[in-house]
Amino acid sequence: MNRWLRHVAAAHAAPALREWLVSPGSLTRRLRAHCERFDVRLLRQGAAACLPDQASAIGLAGTGRVLEREVLLVCDGIPVVYAQTVVPAGCIRAHWPFFNALGSRSLGSALFHDPRIERGALQHARLSGRHPLLRRALAALPPPAPGDLHEPHGPAAMLHARRCLYRRRRGLLLVTELFLPAIAQLMPRRRIPTEPDRQ
Q: Which of 45, 126, 173, 197 is deepest in the core (most CB within 10 A)?
């Protein structure tokens, strides 16, 4: 738990969720095919201290400073994914010039349409309530309705997550996605367009 693993089987995800965890293409594109209205809800974007389990992935010694972006991906008004992106503070202008201008647009729309961007291998984890990203994800959600036993809140909460490192020239960018329970309710509404697999 809270350890990043190369193989999704080691994270013990249910079969239906495993399809979301291993999908190599754009998560935004896949979510759009499962809802009538897709929105990106920007929670925060700005300077932050890098989390300890992310520092080495993006080439920082210790918990250096990063630019951080946190969003909820929302299908038909219901949050289904919490996503966090971190970039070393010194490489935005040279390597990720679009980052500060994203606003409420999807990051995936930029990552999957720039041929200079290389995508690394997916890593998987089950994050517990002790992990700061899970606590942030739950804090961004509305409180559960009385008697609702399906929403994970509190120290016993646990969510499946994946992360991926992107490289553009010499710049590194790390995207972490936590899959919220509501994603299990999504049903495909249209065919998912094919796209090049650049994993």
A: 173
